[in-house]
Amino acid sequence: QIQGMPYGNCLLLSDGPINNSTGIPFFYVTPKDNTVTDLLKNPLASLTLPEADGNFCRKNVIDPEDPRCARLTLTGQMVTVPPEEIEFAKQAMFSRHPVVRKWPRSYEWFFMKMNIEHIWLQSWYGEVSPVAVEE
């Protein structure tokens, strides 16, 4: 009934082990998830990360979803992690989210990552600034 429509979801992500963040988001996914099915057909995606731990919002007791709290939006292509990066993806995901090791193997889990093409930072009402991917 929703075929062809974007399907949002919350997915666990990691950009590397705690002592080796890369800025590249890695995901541990299953083809049984509608989001993943969509991404395998059309890999264009966006990811928004809220400033949940920023000083301004915490200090002023402001909801992290309030526009005054910064948020970063990444857009790009979601791709299956190539074999030469699988070990790094495992370390990245399992070090930050150890519970995924216990997820049922019958779900055929695999790793995807986002090849970031654009970055936008929203730091106040309606103000959006582009950020160079290299940064």
UniProtKB/TrEMBL annotation:
Keyword Secreted part of the UniProt annotation: yes
Gene3D superfamilies: Electron Transport, Fmn-binding Protein, Chain A
Principal place of residence: secreted
Annotated CREG-like beta-barrel domain residues: 2-135
Xref: SUPFAM superfamilies: FMN-binding split barrel
Domain of life from the UniProt record: Eukaryota
Keywords: Glycoprotein, Secreted, Signal
Family: Belongs to the CREG family.
Protein name in UniProt: CREG2 protein
Organism: Certhia familiaris (Eurasian treecreeper)
Classification lineage: Eukaryota, Metazoa, Chordata, Craniata, Vertebrata
